[in-house]
Amino acid sequence: MPLTMKLTKEVDGTSEVTLRDLETGDYIRLGPVMSPMMDAEGRRRMIEETKVLSAYITRVSGLSGAQIGKLALQDFMQMRDFVITQLAFGVGSED
Questions:
Q1: Which residues of the chain have pLDDT under 50?
Q2: Using one digit for the tens of pLDDT, what is the confidence trace for 69-82?
Q3: Cα separations (Å) of 24 from 90, 91, 94?
Q4: What is d(CA 17, CA 4) in angstroms, rounded to the nearest whole number?
Q5: For residue 71, what are the CA distances in angstroms to 1, 81, 85?
Q6: DSSP string, the chain
Q7: Rounded distance between C-alpha atoms, residue 71 and residue 76, angstroms
């Protein structure tokens, strides 16, 4: 389900943004947001690929990369949660 949110602070004249649902083409183009890595002790850890996450937000919001960089962190984190939830559980899995 798309998410419409009022921004904490206006960005380049934009005060509200609607994020559309992710589509298969988004995932094919951008891939996963989380990547495995080994830490110094040899344990497998997942790291967030912030640039990939930002690319997802650009695709689903219509904001440019420069505009995303100007977002209040609170707004970016809400958009981040939207993308990660859709990737992890798929659309309609809120139930």
A1: 92-95
A2: 999 999 999 999 99
A3: 10, 11, 19
A4: 6
A5: 22, 15, 20
A6: --EEEEEEEEETTEEEEEEPPP-HHHHHHH--SEEEEE-TTS-EEEEE-HHHHHHHHHHHH---HHHHHHS-HHHHHHHHHHHHHHHHH-TTTT-
A7: 6
Give the tokens for residue 28: 């094919």
Question: Any residues with CB less than 8 A from the CB of 67 and at least 6 apart, and which?
Answer: 11, 12, 14
For the chain, the farthest-separated pair of C-alpha atoms sits apart, in whole angstroms, at: 48
The residue to which tokens 């967030």 are assigned: 48
Report d(CA 82, CA 71) in Å as an integer: 15
Predicted TM-score (pTM) of the model is 0.84
What DSSP line would sit under 25-38, residue for residue? HHHHHH--SEEEEE
